Amino acid sequence: MARLYEYQGKQLLKAAKVPVPQGEVAATPQEAKKIAEKIGKPVVIKSQVWAGGRGKAGGIKFAEHPLDAEITANQLLGMEIKNLKVEKVLVEEKLDIEKEYYVGVIIDASKEARAPVVMFSTEGGMDIESVDSEKIARVTVDVLRGFRLYDALNLCVALKVPTRVLPSIAQAIMGLYQTFKGYNCRTAEINPLVLTKAGKILAADCRISIDDSSVFRHPELGIDVAREAPTPPTEFDRIAWWIEEGDLRGTCYIAQMAPDKKGPGYVGYHGIGGGGAILGVDALNRQGLKIANYADTSGNPTAAKVYRAAKVILSQPDIEGYMLGGFIVANQEQWHHAHGVVKALREELPKRPGFPSVILLCGNKEKESMEILKEGTTDLLGQNPIEIYGSEKVYETEFLAKRMRALIDEYRKKREIKG
Q: Model pTM?
């Protein structure tokens, strides 16, 4: 799921006629000061990062006047919260809160539902999982019938929301659902939806995630990489996404796991099949190795797509080995993988004498794939150790991880001697 920052989510809610606090986003302390001057009263300054618990981590602070807002923004900008760097802050009016509510829309993917579920609670400001079930009202949306305003009113009535605020809260629930549907969200929540002492209903905070597959429909959101990730995309991530974006035949998922490699022992990891590939990652970790990236090329990708994936993986500086972890007997024709990997190795390995590779490839057209791999890498073996395995080793993750470790140790020794 492609996540939106709070300020982006509030822009969508505002367009759906959900009231939000007065405020704007700032990238510098000076901008924060100007926004506070425009608001003209005490403000809250909120770090814009994809992480919960910002308040406990010191990422949300209050300022009584514009100069204080400038000083506070200067403190927040550049700090790290859960390994995420704060590059922007949201400067909003400070709310005088009387009551907090929760509104959320999620997808229930169970076979019984396979539909959106709208949730409302009179206990906002905390994780919905920790709220007593009797304080949560839910409705599963019939996607053909849709979600109506009276459905939102019924949710409020079920929890005995006071009549004076019932229409405003129902309208906020309706607006959230319209945002959820209109932007193809996977999740959307307002927490808390607050009632101020002046009687206003406002979305004080929100979290919205867009379905990866629908990002192309919404270029106005400015999402560079339509991938679920805990951190903003790196240049490596952008290049990797270009491979998938430009060719939808099969899957090519590549994510950078260690943008700042510290110390030795990093492996360029190229998996096939999610679950089996993770077993290979675990085995490498047990051998004291770390993966610089995680990749998965499955679903019968073309040789060109596999080649681009392997090329990107091998292009990473400071890795000490390459592993193709096909820990699955795949029904896809594996000679496409063989052709793609051979081409990438032939282009990249001559640049790195001694750099080792361990290749496991199993499944349909395995015999032909083994021939392609062995014939295509024969003339590389004089400079680079390459070990190729088929289905006889598909379950031997420890063995393959140990071979990777042994080859990396040899590679490291040779480099030390030359150095």
A: 0.76
